Each structure stands twice: as structure tokens, then as C-alpha cells.
Amino acid sequence: MPMILVIEDDPTQRLLTSSVLRSAGYEVAEAEDGASGLEMARALNPALVVCDVVMPRMNGYQFVAALKQDVALSGVAVILLTAMTERSHMRTGMTAGADDYLSKPFRGAELRQSVATLLAKRAAQSEQYVRGFEQQMSEALEEQKKTLSLRYEKRLLQELNGRWDTEADAHSGTQDRQATVLAANLFSLIRQRIPVQQRAVATRRVYQAASDALYMFGASLLLPSGDDLLAVFPAAPGSDVPRSGLIAVRAAFALQKIVNTVFQAMVLEAMCLPDEADPASLCIALCHGQISLVRFSDPLHGGESLTLACGEAVDACRALGEHARAAGWQVCCVEAVLAGIARSVRTGAAAVVSINAQGQGVLAQELHALADA
User: How far is C-alpha 290 from the chain's CA centre?
Assistant: First the structure.
């Protein structure tokens, strides 16, 4: 229950007033004059004060004025009690800041009703203040949120524009180069010989073995292209085709051995279909010519960049690989790759292969092994 402070210099009247309030269930504190009552109010912070007017040291009017000047106590309700019933006295009390005025002698019901009314009024005012404060806080926070949001969006736009410009400058357009390109039908082979439930693990295993071999032989870039894995062997300065071609041929035979070994191991582990059940085998095509690397990036979301390969060397590899699979060749190349290294390779059949819709053809050569193998 709320705390009520009774300030009365008359002991009998103080006892009577306190008894009425305690019987109504309120917690009551007592003071014998205005000065001690003010000190007690500061210590207890009561919800309401019932105060006599005529008292020594500090009368009721002076008490009310001092109470209302204290910021911490200015909201405390005050009922003044006095035997002076003139209207001027009531106006003086109200002007000082009193909330109600009871004339002595008063009935207990009057005091209880006045106390209950003022406490209810103060509670309503407090609730209204809290609601208003919450509304103001909510509006202020919403305004601050909008301000910060606009500031953040502006900053984010600046950052993204900066990142976009930087990434676009670094990765936009195409990079054209002369290179020897190796295309191996690694992914179609995995799809044909590996059961679905084992395919993810097997793909990772086969790709790791293939990439280790290709990078070891000097490939500068590995790229997936449909069912093929492409390896790019850049030409040496001055378009030294023989050097890059010989390196790519050596990489092709090494890749063939390593991939076959991995598949044989997976057959033993029951992860892979045996050769007898599926005649699919690794087919490798080698071409030399122009390759265009197109790099895409997503600076907006910070995603990894993606590089795609196209160009005459890639188209030739794709057409050559299709012919080789149909002819049963395992390793083959175009004539340009063999330029200057023919004595280093044992060859087989040859055929003219069309590489585009215009009917342009290239001489394709089956490769059996390295001459020193």
C-alpha cells in the first residue's frame, strides 16, 4: 500500500488522522511539525502528505511551498487540514500547491475519500506520463532509426560502389592469351562409373588427384567446362608452342595413369563400377590456340569469383573430344600441338575433325604414348 505522511502538531489530532488512514490499509508515518515533516518526506518519499496548516517552525503553507520546490518531491499530493474555513485560507493553500483542503473537524470517510481520489488521480497522471514518455521515446527512436538507416544506406552505397568499381576494374572483360588447352571428360566419367550415393565423395577424390597432377606439370588454371575439366598451359614468351605442347602431352599421359589408378582403387572399395560393367574411360584432347578467360565476380554480396573459358582452343578441344570418344581414342591432339615434338610422341590414327558450324576442320592425331615411355 502507498506510504502516507501525516504532519500534525496536535498529538490527539495526529493520532486520529493516522488511525483513520491505517484502518484503510495505508502505511503511515508521522511528523509533529512542518520542518521535521519536510525532512521525513525527503527520507521516505511518500505517495501523499496530510498536513495541518497552523504549526510551529514551519506552517502548512510553507511546507507545501518547500515540498513543491524540491524536484524529487514535487509530484507528491498534499491534503491540508485546518480549522480556518474562510475561502481566502483555502485559496492560499491551493496557491501554495496543495491538492485538496479539509476543514477540521472532518469525518473519517471524508479523509479516506480525499486520499483515495488523489492517489487514483496521481496514478492516472503517472500512467499517462509514462505512456506519453514511451510514445515520445518511441517516436524519437524511430526518428533516430530512420536517420541512422539513411546514414547507413548512404555509407553502404558508397562502400558497395567502391567495391564494385574496384572489382569491376580488376575482373571485368576478358583476358585473351595463346595457350595449350587440355580437356578431359572427367565429370562424365564420374557420372557413368560412380553410383549416385558415392558420387560426391568420389568427385572430390578424383578431382583432387587430377588437379595435383595437372598443377605439378605446370597448368596455370583448372576450369570445369560441362562434362570436361580444362587445364590451361600458357605458351612461353614468343608463343613457344613446342614447349607448352610437350608439357601438356606429358600432363595428359600422367593424368590418364593417375585417374585410372584412382578408379581402380575405388573399384576395390566398391565405390566404382568395374571396367567390364561399363566401358567408359578417360578421354583427353589437346589443342593450341587462343583462349579467352572471362571472370565474373559478385562484389555486392562478397561471393567468390567465377571464371569461364571460351575461344578457338576450347571449341577445338570440345569437338576433338567428341570425335575421340566416338573413335575410341584415349589421348589425342591437333597438329599444332605436335609441331616440333613429333619425335617425342608415338602416334596412331589421324582424322580431320570439324570444329565449328562453318565446317572449319583441323587435323587430329591419336597419341599412344611418349617416345621414351
Answer: 42
Cβ burial, residue 263 (10 Å; 0-12/13-18/19+): buried
Q: How far apart are CA 251 and CA 213, in angstroms?
A: 7
User: What's residue 41's pLDDT?
Assistant: 92
CATH 3.40.50.2300 residue spans of the chain = 3-126
Q: What integer pLDDT is reported at residue 330 of this predicted model?
A: 92
User: Homologous superfamily of 3-126 in CATH?
Assistant: Response regulator (3.40.50.2300)
- pTM > 0.70: no
- Does residue 78 or residue 123 have the better pLDDT? 78
Give the Cα separation of 189 and 282 in Å (integer). Answer: 7
According to the model, what pLDDT value does residue 176 have?
Answer: 73
Residue 95 sits at φ, ψ, to 5 deg, of -65, -35
In the chain, the amino acid numbered 125 is Q
Quickly list H helices, 181-285: 186-193, 199-216, 241-268
Q: pLDDT (tens digit, 9 = 90+) per residue, 98-145?
A: 888 888 888 888 889 998 998 888 888 777 767 777 777 777 777 877
Domain with CATH 3.30.70.1230 in the chain: 174-370
The residue with greater pLDDT, 47 or 169, is 47
DSSP assignment string, 252-269: HHHHHHHHHHHHHHHHHT
The answer to whether 206 and 192 have CB atoms below 8 angstroms apart is no
- How far is it, in rounded angstroms, from Cα 309 to Cα 313? 10
> 111 with 20: CB under 8 angstroms?
yes
According to CATH, the topology of domain 174-370 is Alpha-Beta Plaits (3.30.70)
